[in-house]
């Protein structure tokens, strides 16, 4: 019974952090970052705001969800350290989850109170993604270790593919950072045509808002080609491990959805639903990639 509750808590925590990521995107894309003024943890000097503006309630709701999620993260971390004492992966990720959720909250607080540069604001989104994927991995491990009919994900891939997943994950994080940087430098509509950049193959100046968007596009294209190549190799070399190809196919699918939603952002002049879909798809893609990375880092177990 208690193991079942632990599994439910692990999945619920990962899901609530996904909601936090999407609500953070909602705050950014509705101009609600200062909906509570420069006050934190109060909102316009009040515990519960009386203002009726949408921006205030969006920001306030985001803070409430972050607070609730932080409590879940702490409870889950303590429970894991007690229940899964022998599972080093779980204990490390549990400690990391507490650090990341508070780092995420601190970056959000500092942006409100002191204001931050575009670099730091983009980093805030990156930390939010790490927080989600960290807890997604916790949920996977908890299910592996506590469900009586679940097998541990150790496919027996070679060391070279493990390093491929490591470098692919690092590169993906950098690509996502460039996307967040584009958004926080107001460069999303610096080039409204696709695949051209204001009618040209290359931007007039690379260090410009159009240049930032161009760099992000090229980086995203390389990422898509990299994932496709990895899927082809895994499909050919690891036919006996269909779960590996399935995870990669799903990752590629969400990556393509994310790219398509990026085009929609341009076509709809940054309609809110396209911006939220853009954040959702990249978050799910990164989560799947982190599961693949975790499997890749287990290569020694399968020797």
From TrEMBL:
Subcellular location: Membrane
Keywords tagged on the record: Cell membrane, Disulfide bond, Heme biosynthesis, Iron, Membrane, Metal-binding, Oxidoreductase, Transmembrane, Transmembrane helix
Membrane topology: Multi-pass membrane protein
Predominant subcellular localization, coarse grouping: membrane
Pathway as given in its UniProt record: Porphyrin-containing compound metabolism
Segments crossing the lipid bilayer: 5-27, 60-80, 92-115, 121-143, 163-182, 214-235, 247-266, 272-297
Taxonomic superkingdom: Bacteria
PANTHER family named among the record's database cross-references: HEME A SYNTHASE (PTHR35457:SF1)
Name this polypeptide is given: Cytochrome c oxidase assembly protein subunit 15
């Amino acid at each position: 019974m208690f193991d079942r509750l632990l599994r439910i808590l692990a999945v619920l925590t990962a899901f609530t952090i996904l909601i936090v990521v999407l609500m953070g995107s909602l705050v950014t894309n509705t101009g609600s970052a200062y909906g509570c003024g420069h006050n934190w943890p109060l909102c316009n000097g009040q515990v519960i705001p009386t203002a009726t503006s949408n921006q205030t309630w969006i920001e306030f709701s985001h803070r409430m969800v972050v607070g609730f999620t932080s409590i879940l993260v702490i409870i889950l971390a303590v429970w894991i350290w007690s229940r899964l004492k022998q599972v080093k992966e779980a204990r490390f990720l549990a400690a990391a989850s507490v650090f990341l959720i508070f780092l995420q909250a601190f970056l959000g607080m500092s942006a409100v109170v002191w204001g931050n540069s575009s670099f730091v604001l983009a980093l805030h989104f990156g930390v939010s993604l790490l927080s989600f994927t960290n807890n997604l991995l916790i949920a996977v491990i908890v299910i592996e270790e506590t469900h009586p009919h679940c097998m541990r994900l150790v496919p027996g891939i070679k060391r070279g593919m493990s390093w491929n997943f490591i470098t692919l994950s690092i590169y993906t994080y950098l690509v996502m950072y460039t996307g967040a940087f584009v958004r926080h430098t107001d460069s999303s509509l610096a080039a409204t045509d696709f695949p051209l950049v204001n009618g040209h193959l290359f931007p007039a100046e690379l260090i410009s808002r159009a240049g930032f968007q161009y760099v992000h596009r090229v980086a995203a294209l390389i990422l898509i080609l990299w994932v496709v190549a990895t899927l082809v190799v895994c499909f050919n070399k690891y036919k006996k491990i269909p779960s590996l190809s399935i995870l990669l196919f799903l990752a590629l699918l969400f990556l393509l959805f994310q790219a398509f939603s990026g085009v929609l952002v341009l076509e709809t002049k940054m309609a809110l639903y396209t911006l939220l879909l853009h954040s959702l798809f990249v978050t799910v893609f990164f989560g799947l990639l982190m599961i693949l990375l975790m499997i890749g880092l287990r290569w020694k177990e399968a020797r």
